[in-house]
Structures are given as C-alpha cells and as structure tokens.
Amino acid sequence: MSAEPVLKIDNLESYYGPIMAIRGASLEVRQGQIVTILGANGAGKTTLLKTISGVMRPAKGTILLNGDPIQGRDADFVVKKGLVHVPEGREIFPLLSVVQNIVLGAYVRSDKAAIARDLEMVFTYFPALGERKEQPAGTLSGGQQQMLAIGRGLMASPEVMLLDEPSLGLSPLLVDEIFSILKRLNTEQDMTVLLVEQNALVALDVADYGYVMELGRIVMADDAQVLESSKDIQSFYLGAVEETQRGQRRWKQRKTWR
Amino acid sequence: MLQLVVSGLANGSVYGLIALGFVLIYKATEAVNFAQGDFMMMGAFVTIWLANSHYLGLDFWVAVPIAIVIMAIAGYLLDLLVVRRLFGQPQIATVILTIAIGFILRFGAGAIWGHEPQWLETPFAGREVRMFGLVLGLEEVAVVIVTLILTWSLFLFFRRSKLGLAMQAASQNQLAAYYMGIPVKRIQSLVWALGGAVAAVAGILFASKGAVDPSTGLLGIKAFAAAVIGGFGSLPGALVGGLIIGLVEPFAAYALPAGYSQVAPYAIMLLVLIFRPAGLFSQVQKKKV
Q1: Nearest CA of chain A to the CA of B229: how many Å?
Q2: What residues in A contact B283, CB-CB < 8 Å?
Q3: Please, are residues B122 and B208 in contact by the beta-carbon 8 Å criterion?
Q4: Which pLDDT tens digit goes with each residue over A191-221?
C-alpha cells in the first residue's frame, strides 16, 4: 500500500440548485483498496460520486487523482485520467450488443491490442457475458446488466472505479456473486474501488475502509472491521437489535456522532 | 411504364436521403430536425452557386465536395451555437426551433439567390443510358446509385465504426455515454454535421435532375412521411420509405384523377401508422426498470 492516496477529496461542496447536497466531504482512497461509503437514502452518496466523476460540478473543494486536480472537469477528461464511474441502476445501451457495450467502455483509449486483451479479461471474469456477446444488452437480466456495466467500466482500464449500488434490485445470490467477482478484481487486478452501497453488510465484508455519510457530511470513518463491529453501525445499518434491561426494543436511539 | 418506375425511384431516392437526415439526427440526439428539407435546398443552392457558370463556375467535381463540406460545417455550427442551448428543454422546443430555422433558410435563400427555379449544371445532364432495352436519363440512374451507396456506407458506419457506435450509444443512453467518457456534446454536433452533409448530397441530386427554388425544402414534409413509414430510427427503413413514396406518386398520378398523387404519400403514412405504428423497420425498444 503506497503512502499517497490515489484519490483524495478535500472539503467538497456540491449543490442541486439551491439545495446543498454535499456539505464539505473529505475522503481518501489508497491504491489497491476497496473503500465503501455507507449511508441512508438522500445522504448524498450518489451526488458525491457524480461530483467526483465530473457529471456534476462542485461548488467548492478539491478532488485530486494521483495528485492532479480533476474537480469541475468533464467526464471524458476524468475517464482519460483513469477514473471511471459505473452508475447506479446499470445504465447500459439497450439496443447495442453486449460486446459493443463493453467495447464502448474503452472509448477514450486507442491501443487496440490492450483493448482486445481487456475484452478477454472481462469475459473471463463475467463468463455469462461471453455467452451472450451478440445479444442486445436490453435483453439481459438485471444481474447480467449489472455485470455488463461493471465490465464496461473495466474497459476504460481505470485506476479507480466508482461503483454505485451494484446490489440494487438483485437477489441475494447475485449480490454475493457480484461482490465476490469484485473482490477477485481487487486482489488479482489490483483494482481500486470506491463503493457506494445500501447493503452495508456485504459492502463492509469486501471493503478495507469505510465512511459513513449523513445529510451530505462524512460522520464516521474507520477500518471496515471496526465499523462492522461498531454498535451504531450495527443498529442503524445492519439491523441488529439490542436487548435492553427491560427486555424491550428501544425505538428512540441516539447516534453517537451527533 | 418502366420509365415511370425509374423516375419514381430517382425521386424516391431524394426523399429517402432527406428522410435519412431526419433519422440520423433523431437517432443520435432524439430531436427531429424539421429544417432537413430546407437544408437540402440550401445544399442545392450552395452547389449551384459554386458550380453554375453564371455564378462562380467551378468544376462540378470540385464544387460538390466543397458544398458537402460547407453544409456539414453549417450543421455542426447550428448545433454548437443554437440547438445545444435547448439542451434539457422539452422536445417541442427543438421542434419549433427547427421549423423556424427552416423558414429562415427558405427566405434567406430567396434573398440571396432569388425565387426563380434554377438548375444545376452537371456533366451528366441530358445524357442517356440504354439498359435492358430502356432509355434512361443518366442523372436518374446516378441518383439511385449514389443514394444506395450512401445509405449502405452510413449503415456500415453506424454498425462498425467507433464513432458510429458512440453516436448510437449517445442516443440510447445519453447519461451512460457521458459516464463512459464519450464527449456527448461533440458527438451530437458531429451528427448534425453528418445530417448537413447528407442533406447537401440530397440537394445536389435533386438539383441535377430538376429545378430548385427556395420553397423546394417544403418537400421535407414528404420525406418526413417517408421516415415515418420506414420507422423513425432505421436508416434502411428511411430509404425504403422514400422509395415507396417516390414510386407511389407517379403511379397515383397515372392511375388516379389529378390531385390524388399529392395525397397518396400521406395516405400511405396513415395506413402504416394504423397497421404498423412503429413503422416498417422499427427497432423495438423496451426499457427495463
């Protein structure tokens, strides 16, 4: 693990019109890590990713990718720099074939040999896609579409992949499959991932480090194991029920970070 | 009778090419360019201005590529400077905008080149080919051949080339294309440039086999019907739609009382809309949630 973070975000602020969605978030992702951001709906996780990848413009703050500022730049610049965003809800190109979808992921690259090599790599990690190369992507199942979205992201040969809710709308079995592939990519290809997840349990399982977001702020940051065993995380995100002295569940609980 | 077929095919090719312009821009940007017919008219006039002896008098083979490039640049700039400002507005805004652009082009062309019909001087004007015992105008044969080649190469371009795929991707899922680092805005401007170039070719073909005047662009409506018949969004469909309309017109004029030939294309469009609402060559698109 190198000392300098690949991705370093400092005091980022981002707005949806007049609404401040990100209120000064700072985080770091190191080479080879899987870092996860947890949080409830509307906490600003997706907005944070969008701001990093250049789909939204930050109002304030810096985003450094390998030490170079990328805040406020267009997505094609950011992708070229080595950061790719696999959006929420598997946004694929429905009428193009599976293989065309994947190849478009390499739009910013021009080294044909390496692209062909990466295409093979995508098919080894996602054999289901290899079997359906010529099929229109819109006819794939939800899980396959998610795999396609990840595979397409891989084709950009990114240093950091932002992954937004890969478990969205998938069965627990598929979620496990996708996360185990993710873990393999992380260990075998040294892929750095910034993962946003609702499913805190699986996310903390694969992640090295975690952040908790609430209302646009980062409220907690620690190693994944520490977070997993933290009481707050357990009760608010993992659904553990504490036994109280009176033998009833307490519904009014305080979070320690507020 | 067969002569009727060939001239119908030649007319239909021009409709098909304008329809192709509609489909190109619609496919890639989800906007309908109602000025496409007027683009075609502009392409014709620019070529006439470059090539005819009483204007600049350039060689025909020099004038044609220049005219195509001029129209492509015009299309690119139109998107860059005007259409892009409507990004994120409802579709109706683009519709009204392009209709207005059509008017501007029509009267602009009238102001520059006058409202008299004009012909393009081509090397193959008035020459004839004898084929299968028929005497055909060389320009009509040329029109059909050029159209077929152009449609086929555009089809391959969209199927095979990286840029063509990116154009399709940008139309099917703009946001995802943006996420993948495809410069969506530049791609859209390039599509408009392509639309301009295709319109220029259509204009050149049209002007080489008949007269153009500034209101010629109104036949864009007929080409629109052709695009609808073919199934908006399909390149070969646009061509087939154009050919159908091109063929129906002379035969309706031949077999039916006067006036019906003007109605025939739209009657066919209605029939297609009733019995096959997505058009003859539709791409069926269902969005999964």
Answers
A1: 21
A2: 95
A3: yes
A4: 999 999 888 888 999 999 999 998 888 988 9
A105 inside domain: yes
Residue of A nearest to B160 (CA): A100
Instruction: Tell whether A255 is covered by a domain.
Output: no
Beta carbons of A92 and B176 less than 8 Å apart:
yes
Is this prediction's ipTM beyond 0.90? no
Chain-centre distance of CA A230, in angstroms?
Answer: 22
User: At B159, is the secondary structure helix, strand, or coil?
Assistant: helix
Q: CA B42 → CA B33, B197, B209, distances in Å?
A: 14, 11, 16
Does the residue A8 lie in any domain?
no
For A136, the closest chain B residue by CA position comes to B285
Cα–Cα distance list, A175 to A168, A181, A182, A206 (Å): 9, 10, 10, 12
What is the tens place of the pLDDT at every residue in B108-136? 999 999 888 888 887 776 677 777 777 77
- Domain assignment of residue A200, given as a range: 34-53+78-236
B164/chain A closest Cα distance in angstroms? 11
pLDDT band at B282 (very low <50, low <70, confident <90, very high): low
Residues of B with CB under 8 A from a CB of A: 162, 165-166, 168-169, 172-173, 175-183, 283, 285-288
Residue A71 in any domain: the answer is no
